[in-house]
Amino acid sequence: MLSHKVSESMFWLRDDRLAALVSSHFRLNHLDEVCFRICPVDEVVCRQSTMGSTLITVINYSGAVILVLAVLENLLVMVVLAATSHLRIKYFAFVFSLALADLAFSVMAIVYALNRARFLSALLQSSFFVSVLMILAVAVNRYLALTITPPSRYDALVTRCRLVVVCLLLWCFSLALHLPVILVASDEVRLILSAWSRSMLVLAVWIVTAVLYRFVFRKIKSYVPPLASSPGLSIPDDSEQAATRVRQTRRLLVTFSIILVTSFICWIPFNVGQIMEYFIKTGQSTISDDTFNNYNWVCGFIYCLSPAINPLIYWWRLDGFRQGFKELFCRCLLQNQEQLVETVDGNENQQNTESTHWIKNDNK
């Protein structure tokens, strides 16, 4: 009878080692009720584990699709910006650099899913931080465009080469911030740097960027083109150029404000997860490992949405980008249509010539 109860209890246990432990404890103390109390709990844990593994599987496949789309979208953005003549201007310099950062992030995320090396994790977070810095750089650039007068002075000061240098410096700064962490031998120090130092720095950059965007929008609202109030001294070209720059600045800042909000929404759950990891590993939290693992996977999926959303925002907000896309990728279709029309016209002309020739012969 006793062994029968034990065998029934073992039927519900999924872990063989746990079953052996309970069986041994049962024989020594004859606490058969303990075994029956443990079995339902183990069944619930097993079901929760199954649900967690199913969730992780769904996130894995969905994340892979999102990342592949992000790679293709950002490659497309870079090709359009580089191959279209009217888009190779300073106005779109930081858009190109942001697309490059999103492309690097997507590629690193795919590689990191295959090999979870600390070096790849540092590159992944570095790429995302570059995108944050690019959003900040856009606000600084547009602020300079509004404050430096006349516009020709801004064009002389902010050249294409200097913008490229600024982009390279921002990349170097981000890499210098994230890569040295992998050289730290202590897991505790590395955990503190990851959970607090870098997270607080990125959060500070977000706050500064939001404040600066607000400041630039207020400046646009109260902006008066230089010398526009003095008819005798006004320079029509500079006034018209300044008005055009204000319109471009307003539209570009609205676009990057949308990118700012979406990127922050995608980043904040991941940042909370890093802080949670610190409290869990230091024993200051009662959150179970399974719960945190599921939360971490969901946050990672949301974290990867940003580089896939940004190209869609470019398409929606930037008229020049849509025009460049149509000129670049519809050109082949237009050329094929023109060749087809020329071929049809040539055949019709040839048929008309032959018909005229036969009519003349009949008349003779």
Brief overview:
It is built from 13 helices and no strands.
Structure in words:
Residues 345-364 are annotated as: Disordered. By secondary structure, the chain is an all-alpha fold. It folds into 2 domains: 2-30, no CATH class; 55-332, Rhopdopsin 7-helix transmembrane proteins. The chain has helices at residues 2-12, 16-29, 32-83, 93-114, 118-147, 151-157, 160-178, 187-221, 236-281, 289-303, 306-317, 319-329, 331-363.
List keywords for this structure.
364 residues, 0% strand, 2 domains, 13 helices, disordered N terminus, Rhopdopsin 7-helix transmembrane proteins, mainly alpha
Annotation, overall tally of beta strands: 0
Report strand %. Answer: under 5%
Q: What does the average pLDDT come to?
A: 76
Q: Which fold does the CATH topology of the largest domain refer to?
A: Rhopdopsin 7-helix transmembrane proteins
What low-confidence regions span 5 or more consecutive residues with pLDDT below 50?
1-48, 227-235
- Named CATH architecture of the largest domain: Up-down Bundle
Number of domains: 2
CATH class membership of the largest domain: Mainly Alpha
Membrane topology: Multi-pass membrane protein
Main location: membrane
Transmembrane segments: 61-84, 91-113, 119-140, 161-183, 195-216, 252-270, 295-316
Pfam family, one: 7tm_1
